[in-house]
Amino acid sequence: MPWNGCSQYQVTTVDMGDGRERSRLSRKAALSRHRYGQPGPAIPRKYGIVGAAAQSAPSARPASGRLDRMRILFVGDVFGKPGRDALLRWLPGFCEERAVDFVVANGENAANGAGITTRIAQRLLDGGVDVITTGNHVWRQKDIYPFLAADERIVRPANYPVGAPGRGLTVRPAREGGEVAVINLAGDLYLNSGMSPFRIVDRLVEEAQQLAETILVDLHAEATSEKVAMGHHLDGRVTAVVGTHTHVQTSDARVLDGGTAYVTDVGMTGPRDSVIGVRTDIILQRFTTELPQRFEVAEGPVRLNAVLIDSDGGRATSIGAIDSVL
Q1: Residue 262 clears pLDDT 60, i.e. is over it
Q2: Does residue 233 carry a catalytic annotation?
């Protein structure tokens, strides 16, 4: 049903059931505040999983009080001012209604469609985002370099060259206890990241398993094959593998056999009436004339794409894809 001025949610939810068991990921009882920094601004305690294809999602979380259950909202590539403004209007109410424990957003297109600035990153973090992931446009705004190096609430692809500002793995506290590890990777096919994410991901996952029970991987990649392969490679070792970059949500959200939530691409949070965020007339001019054009962010209604993931003991139990017009 419509909520908070949004259109009806288009969702898919997969439930693994209680019959299967998976070994829990190891975690430390506590993290050093010096190493991982202070928690970011809190938003109210909330609930939710978005509905299911064949049955309705539960309307309330079981009142167990257990900290190993986690609900994570991952928001697809936030594009320009329209995307970030719509997200910040929508986020507090959705999180309150759906009891979200932790919010991750890909912000690599947040600054006029190309990169992210310190001011924009801070605004997203102040507005309820716990961790910002990035991708191939992360270096477009030099203003962000010191922030990448200093603040552990923003990550860039871990398989970028050694010495680049920032980090590719962070661990942050969730609202009601527990920690979430977030790993950011870039695809190598067509994006030329310099190193295949498969060469580094095993070490990163092993490190993350020592620090948190819930582990989310954002693979920012062009090739669907690379993302699908990564999902299978990490199945049973991480809570979720989500793909970003193409700005088009895929319809394959599911929990894999080992208990890892997966979607090839979360999609985009940006102008609906556009070509992946850019004004349609500009892109058509470029394709029809083959002449360079200056890109401008489109205006109008915003399509918000995200996924909502439920987990228990680091094992995903469901994933729902959100496709809403704001």
Answers
A1: yes
A2: no
